[in-house]
Amino acid sequence: MSEKNYRTPSLKAVKLMRITSSLSLAIFLVMPSVIASLYYRYELSYFSFVIIGAVLLFSFLYIAITPKIRFNRYKYLIEADRIEIIEGLFFIRRTIVPIDRIYQIDIQKGPIDNMVGVAKVRLTTAGSSAAFRFLEPETADEIAMHLNTSVLAKIKAEGTDENV
Fold it and tell me: pTM surpassing 0.90?
């Protein structure tokens, strides 16, 4: 399979990934650190400052490096018979969805997506779902319409009822 056929997400994806990384770190690292520092506020020692420094360094590196790695690994392919989505940070996940198994196509934009200017196309099959993420809104509309046309063409080719 040729790498040239794969498409990459919008460059706005890095900004969105930085925002979501920051929010997740705020929930999982900063809030517990603040609670712990309030609990031990009278017992701050050298060890406490080392831990706080390590948490801040990890947070900075996570926000600076992780989005670039995820962006470089994220790609998708739309073929006549299937869709492939490759993504991941530590573990690379490759999702393959047959076109003829798709029964619902949604375009979704959350509040942060709107702020950054991206959208996602969610595909639902009988057994699972997959999503094209980090797309320009126009690209999301084009992909959704193309997939809808492809699914309808396959249904008509199979001779099923047109009211599906």
Answer: no
Take residue 15 and report the two structure tokens written for it.
């900004």
CATH number at residue 121: 2.30.29.30
Residues 81 and 153 reside in one and the same domain = yes
Q: How far apart are CA 156 and CA 26, in angstroms?
A: 50
Block residue for tokens 């690292």: 29
Q: Are residues 23 and 57 in the same domain?
A: yes
Helix (H) or strand (E) holding 71: helix 46-73
Extended beta strands in the chain, E state: 75-78, 82-87, 93-98, 102-108, 119-125, 129-135
Q: Which residues contact 67 (CB under 8 A, 6 or more apart)?
A: 13, 14, 17, 18, 21
pLDDT digits (tens, 9 = 90+) for 34-53: 777 776 666 666 777 777 78
Domain interval for residue 65? 8-72
- In the chain, the N- to C-terminal Cα span, in Å, equals 33
For 147-157, the pLDDT digits (tens) are 999 988 888 88
Is 102 within 8 Å of 89 (Cβ atoms)?
A: no
Q: Which amino acid is at 55?
A: V
